[in-house]
Design goal:
mainly alpha
């Protein structure tokens, strides 16, 4: 089937899911101004993207699997990301 390998396709899904999760956690660390955590997630993000990029540049069909993995990674990591409650402004009681 034009050199399509389902094992590689699954690897691309997993690699891009992990890459997108790392990207989400990188952005959370930047938003929280945690420099070391942000730097660590940035390094992980780039290392994980290598497999997916190398795999789907050889065969264009793997782009579909990369997109699916990206969606899964972002969805799952944002679901797991714990957010602090939003502070509500304190107003004076009405008299």
């Amino acid at each position: 089937m034009f050199g399509f390998d389902p094992i590689i396709a699954m690897g691309v899904v997993l690699a891009t899911a992990a890459t997108d999760a790392a990207y989400v956690f990188f952005n959370a660390a930047v938003g929280a101004r945690h420099r070391i955590r942000a730097a660590n997630w940035s390094a992980i993000w780039y290392m994980l993207s290598a497999f997916a990029v190398i795999s789907f540049t050889e065969h264009a069909i793997y782009v579909v699997f990369a997109a699916a993995g990206s969606w899964i990674g972002a969805f799952v990591s944002v679901t797991w990301l714990v957010r602090a409650p939003i502070a509500r402004p304190v107003t004076a009681p009405e008299v």
